[in-house]
Design a protein that fits this description.
It is built from 12 helices and 2 strands, in the order H-H-H-H-H-H-E-E-H-H-H-H-H-H. Strands 1-2 form a two-stranded antiparallel sheet. Helix 3 runs antiparallel to helix 4, helix 6 packs antiparallel against helix 7 and helix 8 packs antiparallel against helix 11. It is mostly helical. It has 2 domains: 170 residues, no CATH class; 166 residues, no CATH class. The C terminus is likely disordered.
C-alpha cells in the first residue's frame, strides 16, 4: 500500500460537494418563488409591490448563486483543483467581509429595531439577538467551515493527486486567487443593479437610466479585463484592479457622505411603503462611509501584500511559470513572508 504524506480528504470533499449542490438547488428554487411573488403583488396592487426590474435582478442573483454553488459542488465531488481553489478564495472574501459586516451591522440594525418597537409597541430584543446569531453563522461560521475544508494542506494534496491535469488555477498563487474572484464578483454586483434602475453612485451624484447603464457596462468590462490580467500575474491587472477599487470606493464614500441611503433607494424605484420604513430607521451616512473606508483600507493592504507575485523576479527568465505549473509557495513554504 502506498504511503501518503498527507491525509486523504476525498470523503469530506465529496460530502461538501453534495452540500454545495443541494444549496445551489435551493437557490434555484427561489427564482420561481420570486416570479410568483412578483405576479401576486402586481395582481393585488399592494403598496409593497416592487418594479419588475427589482424582481428580475433578485432572480439574477439567485441564478448566479445557484450556478456557482452547483458548479463548485460538482467540482468538489469530483475532487477538482479549480473548484477547491475558487472555494477557498471565496471563503476568505466572505470571512473578511463578514467580520466587517458584523462589526458595523449594529449601527444599521439598532435604529431599525428601535423604529419597529415604536411602530408595533412590542419588544424586539429577541428578534435582534436572533438576527445577530443568524448573521454570525452566515458571515463567520459558514466561511470558516469553507476555509477549514478547502484551505488546508490535506485538501490541496488530495485534489492534486485526484486531478493531475493542468488548469489555469495552477498558475495563480493561493494568495492572489481572492483578487481574481474580487474582480469577477464586482462584475456580478454591478450587473445586478441594472434592474434597480441602473443606479451608479459617482462622486456625489447618483446616475440612473442610460447614463448609469453605460457606466456599469464600462466599469464591468474594465473589471473583466483586470481579472483576466491578474490571472496571468500581469502587473497591468494589479494596477487596474487597484485603481478601480480605489476610485469606486472613494466615489461611494463621497456620494454617501452627501446623500443618505434613502436617496439611493428612491433612485432604485423602491415602493413608498418600504421607503417609509427606511426613513424611520434613520440610518446616517457615518456608518456607511466608515464601512466603505474600512473595506478600502483592508483591500489596499491585501493588494500591497500580494504585490510581489506580479514582479519579474517571481517568474523565470522566459516569463512563464516553472513547467507551466505554479509551485505554490504557500503550500511548500518557500515564500518569504
Amino acid at each position: 500500500m502506498e504511503n501518503k504524506d498527507y491525509k486523504d480528504l476525498s470523503v469530506l470533499l465529496k460530502i461538501s460537494g453534495v452540500i454545495g449542490i443541494i444549496s445551489g438547488a435551493l437557490f434555484a428554487l427561489m427564482i420561481p418563488l420570486m416570479i410568483a411573488g412578483m405576479i401576486l403583488m402586481k395582481s393585488l396592487g399592494t403598496a409593497q409591490a416592487m418594479s419588475s426590474g427589482i424582481y428580475i435582478s433578485a432572480s439574477f442573483v439567485y441564478a448566479i448563486m445557484a450556478a456557482v454553488s452547483i458548479v463548485l459542488g460538482i467540482g468538489s465531488f469530483r475532487l477538482k483543483k479549480l473548484a477547491r481553489a475558487v472555494a477557498e478564495a471565496l471563503g476568505w472574501i466572505m470571512l473578511v467581509g463578514g467580520i466587517v459586516a458584523m462589526i458595523t451591522m449594529p449601527f444599521f440594525m439598532g435604529n431599525m429595531y428601535s423604529y419597529l418597537e415604536e411602530q408595533t409597541g412590542m419588544s424586539m430584543g429577541f428578534m435582534e439577538v436572533f438576527a445577530y446569531v443568524t448573521m454570525f453563522f452566515i458571515y463567520i461560521v459558514g466561511p470558516g467551515v469553507i476555509l477549514l475544508v478547502y484551505g488546508n494542506r490535506n485538501a490541496i494534496r488530495t485534489c492534486e493527486e485526484a486531478d493531475p491535469e493542468h488548469s489555469w488555477a495552477d498558475n495563480v498563487p493561493r494568495k492572489v486567487m481572492p483578487l481574481v474572484m474580487i474582480c469577477f464578483m464586482a462584475v456580478f454586483g454591478l450587473l445586478t443593479v441594472i434592474g434597480y434602475n441602473a443606479v451608479f453612485p459617482l462622486f456625489g451624484a447618483i446616475l440612473t437610466g442610460l447614463p448609469g447603464f453605460t457606466a456599469i457596462v464600462v466599469v464591468s468590462a474594465a473589471f473583466v479585463f483586470a481579472g483576466l490580467k491578474v490571472m496571468k500575474l500581469d502587473i497591468a491587472g494589479w494596477w487596474l484592479s487597484l485603481g478601480l477599487i480605489f476610485v469606486l470606493q472613494i466615489s461611494n464614500m463621497i456620494t454617501f457622505s452627501q446623500k443618505g441611503l434613502i436617496d439611493l433607494y428612491e433612485k432604485m424605484n423602491f415602493p413608498e411603503a418600504q421607503l417609509e420604513l427606511i426613513r424611520g430607521m434613520d440610518i446616517g451616512a457615518g456608518p456607511i462611509v466608515i464601512m466603505l473606508g474600512v473595506m478600502l483600507v483592508l483591500t489596499i493592504a491585501y493588494m500591497l501584500w500580494i504585490r510581489r507575485y506580479f514582479t519579474p523576479e517571481y517568474k523565470n527568465p522566459e516569463g512563464i511559470l516553472p513547467n507551466g505549473i505554479e509551485p505554490d509557495p504557500d503550500l511548500y513554504q518557500k515564500d518569504e513572508d
